[in-house]
Specification:
Blueprint: H1 4-8, H2 15-23, H3 27-45, E1 48-51, E2 53-58, H4 84-96, E3 101-106, H5 114-127, E4 131-135, H6 141-150, E5 154-156, H7 164-170, H8 176-188, E6 192-199, H9 206-218, E7 223-228, H10 245-259, E8 265-266, H11 268-273, H12 277-283, E9 288-289, H13 296-299, H14 308-314, H15 319-328, E10 332-333, H16 341-346
Parallel strand pairs: 1-9, 1-10, 2-3, 3-4, 4-5, 5-6, 6-7, 8-9
Helix pairs in contact: 2-9, 2-10, 3-10, 4-5, 5-6, 9-10
The protein binds S-adenosyl-L-homocysteine.
Length: about 350
């Protein structure tokens, strides 16, 4: 018989114990889980919450992931891509807002060649005192080398699901192993790496989610994102249910307890799922929020899933409001770059 008290007092959790946590239904027990996650966050990460300003600079994508609205075979989506000048203007806004990490994200858009991205990284690094996170999908190994040399600090590439069979069903027969090779390579050449999953994918089990958390541990990720599935009306998964809020929060909490000093964000998707999603995510042990700086004119076209537009009107998204969410949970807004805590501890 598994016992919540005993599990929450262990330092290492097995897959079965993680599943036990994900299965909790009793509200009091769930609150105990969240409190434990907060304790672990405090011990390993302190009380600072980090802001990352994200620029979604292109919604063109070569991939055809079944769950994603940016997929190449979505012909309904109006595509956009920003110029270097546009991106730099937004980078400046982020830096002026006092945010010290800029996340450059796009679909897999090979129109942005190796040199363009290197040049962009160098210009941003020369002009602003910020860390740069890239989230450009799977690119060439030589490109990762160049971007690392150009000064990029971090790379986000979610493994999406640790279930091999599900992975190839969702990704047009692409292989999970390939994605993991990229993640391991990025880590080996010195990037701080981020991986993670989508919670509530059609066909996914709780065992799969436990494996997602354990895979992030095995990959020795510096950042890990566990974010709810929300259907995109222009994808083959348009009729599938959106992920469960409680399950999403329990996943974040279990991940915090297992991964300890890893940066865990509350994603925009969690905020779309529920008005209080991001506050609840912080209370379940997350320590990062990523305010979107993509300009209004493009934002609605970065439609990974549906509902981002209504989210804006229902859930005001200004930086001030995000800061209020943080302080309402007793968190302190970090003024630093929020580098990997693993490296910090190693120094
Ligand atoms: N092209 C890049 C990143 C862009 S998409 C890459 O491949 O890494 C960023 C993230 O959005 C993806 O990693 C995926 O986890 C998430 N995503 C895509 N479709 C989603 C959906 N329907 N619901 C929730 N998250 C989704």
């Amino acid at each position: 018989m598994m016992n919540l008290f005993l599990i929450l007092n262990k330092t290492e959790l097995s897959k079965e114990e993680i599943v036990f946590l994900l299965l909790l239904t009793n509200e009091k027990e769930i609150q105990k889980l969240f409190l434990k996650a907060q304790e672990v966050r405090k011990e390993f990460c302190g009380s600072e919450i980090h802001l990352r300003g994200i620029i979604e600079f292109s919604n063109y994508c070569e991939q055809d992931c079944l769950y994603c609205g940016l997929r190449i075979s979505n012909f309904e989506l109006q595509r956009y891509c920003m110029s270097k000048e546009e991106i730099l203007k937004i980078a400046e806004q982020i830096a002026n807002a006092g945010i010290k990490t800029i996340v450059l994200q796009s679909g897999e858009d090979f129109e942005y060649g190796c040199d363009f991205i290197s040049d962009l990284i160098k210009t941003i690094k020369n002009n602003f005192d910020v860390a740069i996170t890239l989230s450009l999908g799977e690119r060439g190994y030589y490109e990762y080398d160049e971007w690392q040399k150009a000064g990029a600090d971090r790379y986000l590439l979610k493994h999406e699901t640790a279930n091999k069979n599900l992975y190839s069903k969702l990704h047009n027969k692409q292989k999970l192993e390939e994605r993991l090779l990229h993640l391991r390579y990025l880590k080996a050449i010195g990037f701080q790496t981020g991986s993670g999953n989508i919670i509530g994918l059609p066909g996914q089990t709780l065992e799969d989610i436990a494996d997602d958390i354990l895979l992030c541990k095995e990959l020795d990720c510096d950042m890990a994102s566990f974010s709810p599935f929300i259907s995109s009306e222009h994808s083959p998964f348009k009729n599938f249910d959106t992920a469960d809020l409680k399950l999403s929060l329990k996943t974040i909490a279990a991940a915090r307890i297992v991964l300890k000093d890893v940066h865990i964000p509350v994603t925009t998707a969690l905020g779309v799922l529920d008005k209080n999603g991001r506050k609840l995510g912080l209370e379940a042990g997350a320590n990062v929020i990523m305010p979107i700086f993509t300009p209004e004119i493009y934002r609605k076209f970065y439609e990974i899933y549906s509902g981002r537009e209504s989210y804006k009107s229902n859930h005001p998204d200004s930086l001030e409001e995000i800061k209020m969410i943080i302080t309402s949970t007793g968190g302190k807004i970090s003024t630093g770059k929020g580098d990997s805590l693993k490296r910090f501890l190693q120094k």
